[in-house]
Write a structure and sequence with these properties.
Layout (H helix, E strand, L loop, with lengths): L13 E4 L3 E6 L5 E7 L2 E2 L9 H4 L6 E4 L5 E2 L2 E5 L2 E5 L8 E2 L9 E3 L2 E8 L2 E14 L2 E10 L5 E3 L2 E7 L3 E3 L4 E2 L11 E2 L17 E5 L4 E7 L4 E8 L4 E5 L6 E7 L5 H7 L6 E3 L4 E12 L1
Length: 293
């Protein structure tokens, strides 16, 4: 079992809002963003029944990925004298999206918190989440802190499912593809993986783009004329995007490393997880700026 800290009594939902934007967060269901609404338009794939998050946790709303993002290879692996032995938790046979996406989080004065470790992850850690809404801007700050006494490999990210089929622009000239068994090095973008200009994402795309600068992506919904720009800090982050074609939604996820990040760290490949010193933190700040044309 994952060793999660006992949490204080938390409300079923927290709402962060301005006159233009509403964000609803579910602390007891992975501190996930259940809803993101701009001028009455739902931008996330939001279920009508909140319990659907529990029944199908990977495909609704937006959730934190930690202490790793995207896919790792399950099973035993030795790293720095400790044994990583992650269970399979996804239909493709991978260990995916970390450990905190459905666990109950604690609500504190400085945001939401969860402590974890175990279930094949031999380090203790803390994840923090802060959300701030300022008129048309949503700022999502995530922290992953190593609570152990030795360095810990780590990664953190946000996994939103964007409602419908918005147009996408990702200003990146290289891509790791596909995300399953992600290759060691990226290739030059071509064809449907060249998303440098706003347009539809082809069904079946599932890849990762290294971010070159703070602007990570732009989304545009032609029917409502709503536009969302996604900026990240630090600027050397990654954007994973997928269009499975059967969800009436696309995934577009800012994160701190590429898929198979532990293998990348062991093999000195680009896109690796970060080795976090004891007591130190890895941070990712995602800023959404919303507008209507």
């Amino acid at each position: 079992m994952v060793a999660f800290r006992a949490m204080a009594v938390a409300p079923p939902a927290l709402t962060f809002a301005s006159s233009e934007v509403e964000v609803v967060v579910l602390p007891t269901l992975g501190a996930r963003l259940h809803r993101l609404r701009y001028r009455g338009h739902d931008l996330l794939r939001t279920p009508t029944d909140i319990d659907e998050h529990r029944r199908d946790p990977f495909f609704y709303g937006a959730y934190v990925m930690a202490p790793w993002c995207n896919r790792l290879t399950p099973g035993e692996l030795e790293f720095a004298g400790r044994t990583v032995d992650l269970p399979v938790n996804f239909s493709d046979g991978s260990a995916i999206h970390g450990q905190v996406f459905l666990a109950p989080w604690e609500v504190g004065p400085d945001g939401l918190l969860i402590d974890g470790g175990g279930e094949g992850w031999p380090w203790r850690y803390r994840v923090g989440l802060q959300i701030a809404v300022d008129f048309v801007t949503v700022r999502i700050t995530q922290h992953l802190t190593n609570l152990d006494d030795v360095p810990m490999p780590g990664g953190i990210g946000l996994h939103p499912w964007w409602a419908g089929q918005p147009q996408v622009a990702i200003p990146a000239a290289h891509v790791f593809t596909p995300n399953v068994a992600s290759p060691p090095v990226p290739s030059v973008v071509t064809g449907p993986l060249d998303l440098r200009h706003l347009g539809s994402m082809a069904i079946g795309v599932d890849a990762t783009w290294p971010v070159d600068g703070h602007l990570a992506a732009t989304l545009f919904w032609p029917d409502t004329r709503v536009r969302a720009t996604i900026a990240v800090e630090p600027a050397d982050a990654y954007v994973v995007a997928a269009n499975p074609g059967n969800r009436d939604a696309i995934a577009l996820e800012p994160e701190t490393h590429a898929p198979m990040g532990l293998r990348r760290l062991l093999n000195n490949e680009p896109g690796a997880m970060t080795l976090i010193a004891p007591g130190e933190s890895l941070s990712l700040v995602t800023t959404l700026t919303l507008s209507a044309d």
